[in-house]
Design brief:
The structure is a homodimer. The termini of chain A are far apart. Chain A folds into 2 domains: 3-59 and 359-405, Roll (Urease, subunit C, domain 1), CATH 2.30.40; 62-345, TIM Barrel (Alpha-Beta Barrel), CATH 3.20.20. The longest helix of chain A is centred in the first third of the chain and has 17 residues, at 98-114. Chain A has helices at 81-94, 98-114, 127-137, 154-168, 190-203, 215-225, 229-235, 253-262, 270-275, 283-288, 308-323, 331-345, 379-386, 413-428; strands at residues 3-9, 19-27, 30-35, 47-58, 60-65, 117-124, 140-147, 176-182, 206-211, 243-247, 265-268, 293-295, 363-367, 392-397, 400-404, 407-408. The radius of gyration of chain A is 21 Å and the shape is globular. Chain A contains 14 helices and 16 strands. Chain A has an 8-stranded mixed sheet, covered by helices on one side. By secondary structure, chain A is an alpha/beta fold. At the A-B interface, α2, α9, α11, α13 and α14 of A face α2, α9, α11, α13 and α14 of B.
């Protein structure tokens, strides 16, 4: 289907590159033209979307999440990290069945699509169900099975990962790609990391891993191995693969140099890092060193939503606060991180992340006729500092309209909500004081 | 008119006090019953609002803003503080006319109401226009004319303030109250502060002032007077009045003790402090010392929206990040700050801020049937960590429904948007690169 999109196009190809009253032409899932309407030669669209007071942006890329953890949204907040994991989250995760993961993931897809996120990187388990939810929702995703090297099923999980890659890599019309997902340096011993690195090379896929999330992790790794988490991964050869390193909160200048040299991409999760009290990642230093940075929400249990517009704002504000410098991480850089930065971090930089001819058509339309967008002094600053998920009206992934007029077209949302309630109730057993289950 | 509101009532009277399937009865602008429906004796409402999957909360209180600065939203971002003020904001403010301030304020009122804010504390100029906008919008507000003690018109401005208090204090059916607004310790010399304190005592009104917003202010005051900004205000007798002290970012333990002893209330503005790189206020220390704390957005030029739900979330996340402690400022405390804390800070703690029999009916209804609120494990955590302005469906101020089904009833929003565009265009002259003016 040929679709024409009209509006103020923010292609994310340069800080000042804004195309007022522009058009984007989409054919066979691809962007075939971006520019002034008068440059459109013989394109007769079957549908025209957008118009005045509409901003057109690349779909947002959530570079690190555990989608199915929507199941635990607001279940246990404001607790010390280890109590939260050990006493609250892990016991519930142990009770998860495949159907719950499907339900949690499809809910996450609905929420992300409604907020303009078109692609996400996920690490969890029951990954066939995750992939099925992605396929059904129409989203794009990079998926990996989480691997705990110290667990009794470590080898089995790696074998499962191979099967998962064989089954899903490049599937759903190319919307699903796969990675290997060793959980973290503190849960995967060096020998296991080496094995994963070898498997990634053999399979031709990237690696998604948590790195240097907490001060404690960094101290423990130093004590155990005499080096930093980043250093350990480097020594194990893991960074020779294309790596998506989530968090990198506690990284030294030497670590940053390694990440830059190895081309390792970082997924920054400002709200999760804040909520869990993990610390503040040195994002401006990482950017200065030339490290590719994407932006992520992490799981809904530590956020508690999957709103990438909000995450952009938090990313920009947090760097300014940490450095007491209002010029740190300006709006456009936050927008880059949430689009092309994330796309590159997921190995999709040639395919999505900007609005350019030849790329796949992952596009979102934001309604600018809102009080909180007035007066329209700076449309980029508005998107980063003032926008919210509900401003997204239309979402297209791979040329397919999946959200129209603020409604998801691919999934029955009422059923998703009813199912998740049922799963949540079974998982927790007895609802707590402020629960409405 | 007798109105009955149904839903899950979060009265903000205790962290676990949630009334599932409760009702709030409103008569003559007042809350006359809160509880189970079966306890309603002979109340025959003319209208019933809410129902299943609705949260009912006290209206949010924006404890510090400059409403008309919506005119400068996104006009100049990511700049060093003094360049931003001197080269960008002040030149535009010099061009402001009374009509612009009315337009900027009514836009702010619309935005705040749509996001569940029912009351705000404002410091600006052309305050008659601000009061007119408040009256028209149906909001509640505490208003003061900003006073620059070092300006040539300092005496005239104080005289104007007296007239403003005489004209508006207690007006708009009691929805408008007034304060005196000495801008800050660094713009108001001690003699002037003493004069303002005396005038406040004589008029029986409180004082709204910026205090210790930046590291530089604190250093400059120390150099000039040998004490902290808080210490200076104390010595001048200013803190003998009911004071609403905005910011208090750079306060020492001794300052905190003074604030607690004097009953000075603090308006915390996390997003503005972050965006301007001002620093991180020691909110948990202030709370521990027993200081009353409200939450504010500050002006839209440094935020860039007036979304108090977002501000709550940022407040909670920022304290956790600053202290690397996930238990710092839990959800309920953030909610308290945004409701009863702000109400007390504005001297309205007996009148609004909680849902209790006898209080004025300032209430908001949030639609919980949304993907980002599922599953409903904890309704308070959901409101603080996951909600957004667009989740607010109904807003009542002083018993009047002013937002219904997400639409403002008191103001023609389309006219407001068109007018603000016209004012903004005149003020800036030539629009900038990313402007859509």
């Amino acid at each position: 289907m040929d679709i024409l999109i009209k509006g103020t196009v923010i292609p994310v190809t340069g800080p000042g590159e804004i195309l007022r009253d522009g058009v984007v032409a989409v054919r066979d899932g691809k962007i075939v033209y971006v520019g002034r309407p008068e440059g459109l030669n013989g394109f007769t669209p079957e549908r025209v979307i957008g118009g005045a007071e509409t901003a057109v942006l690349p779909g947002l890329v959530n570079a690190h999440t555990h989608a199915a953890m929507t199941l635990f949204r607001s279940y246990a907040d404001d607790l010390p990290l280890m109590d939260w994991l050990k006493e609250e989250i892990w016991p519930l995760e142990n009770r998860l069945e495949a159907a719950d993961v499907y339900r949690g993931t499809i809910l996450a897809c609905v929420e992300m699509l409604l907020g303009g996120t078109t692609t996400f990187a996920d690490m969890y388990f029951f990954m066939n169900e995750v992939a099925a939810a992605v396929q059904e929702s129409g989203m794009r995703a990079s998926l990996c099975r989480g691997l705990i090297g110290v667990a009794p099923n470590a080898e089995e999980a790696l074998a499962e990962s191979r099967e998962f890659v064989a089954a899903w890599h490049g599937k759903a019309g190319g919307r699903i790609s796969c990675m290997l997902g060793p959980h973290a340096p503190y849960t995967c011993p060096p020998e296991y990391l080496k094995k994963v690195a070898a498997a990634a090379a053999e399979l031709g896929v990237g690696i998604h891993i948590h790195v240097a999330e907490t001060r404690r992790e960094t101290a423990d790794i130093l004590k155990q191995y005499g080096c930093s988490p980043v250093g350990l991964l480097n020594v194990c050869g893991l960074l020779d693969a294309p790596v998506l390193a989530a968090h990198c909160v506690h990284v030294s200048p030497a670590d940053i140099e390694i990440l830059a040299k190895k081309g390792t991409a970082v997924a920054h999760n400002p709200e999760s890092n804040m909520k869990l009290g993990s610390g503040i990642a040195p994002i401006t230093d990482l950017l200065d060193a030339g490290v590719t940075i994407g932006l992520g929400t992490d799981g809904a249990a530590s956020n508690n939503n999957l709103d990438m517009l909000e995450e952009m704002r938090s990313a920009a504000l947090l760097q300014k606060a940490a450095r007491e410098d209002p010029t740190a991480l300006p709006a456009y850089k936050a927008l880059q991180m949430a689009t092309i930065g994330g796309a590159r971090a997921l190995g999709m930089g040639e395919m999505i992340g900007t609005i350019e001819t030849g790329k796949r058509a992952d596009l979102i339309l934001i309604d600018l006729r809102k009080p909180h967008f007035y007066p329209p002094h700076d449309v980029v600053a508005h998107v980063v500092y003032a926008a919210r998920a509900s401003d997204v009206r239309t979402v297209m992934v791979d040329g397919q309209v999946v959200v129209d007029g603020g409604q998801v077209l691919t999934v029955n949302v009422e059923t998703v909500l009813d199912n998740i309630r049922e799963s949540a109730l079974r998982l927790v057993g007895r609802p707590r004081e402020r629960s409405l289950l």
